[in-house]
């Protein structure tokens, strides 16, 4: 059996920026709660002096939306998947988050298995694809993740012609069209600033934005 992967402080901080509890951070990093706890107790928050584990544990559930809670007779996500609730009542990012964290979908390409994370913000380049083209149909048989390459090969373009022109042109790239929407959280924006690689600053306080394409 392969040894469990080590968890760096930067990986812990990235997960903390995207989640509201240690359990959610463990799901985000695709590891067990006990494994993450061990590493989070090794690292200290410079501002408070607390360990990252003590700072991020959230036993009261403060700040976690009610629909993410396991309390209640039936999870709202199951109602969406089985078509009892209109998916348009929920944001796609939150549905996508629950599909991953509750085990309905693996955070990897269903075609080629790609699941590498970008080092700057720990996102996986995946697109949630609806097989019947109906973006309100979250039935398990109708949805899957595709990496950019497989989406391009089997579904449609990932970037518009204008995006490609800008990416390949000799003119310095400023912005692409709405087809590309990369966002960094505050922690990673600061890291990029320290490296001199920051671009236009954007706010990203949403803890559910796990993949880099919306």
- Largest sheet geometry: 2 strands, antiparallel
Strand % is under 5%
What order do the strands of the largest sheet run in, or round the barrel if closed? Answer: 1-2
H/E element sequence: HHHHHHEEHHH
Radius of gyration: 19 Å
Number of helices: 9
Whole-number mean pLDDT: 77
Number of strands: 2
Distance between the termini: 35 Å
- Structural domains: how many: 2
Instruction: State the secondary-structure class.
Output: mainly alpha
Uncertain segments of ≥5 residues (pLDDT<50)? 67-74, 199-214
Estimate the global geometry from the Cα principal axes: globular
Helix content: 25-40%
Write the layout of secondary structure elements.
Blueprint: H1 9-18, H2 22-28, H3 33-40, H4 52-56, H5 76-81, H6 92-101, E1 126-130, E2 143-147, H7 148-154, H8 161-168, H9 186-194
Antiparallel strand pairs: 1-2
Helix pairs in contact: 1-2, 2-3
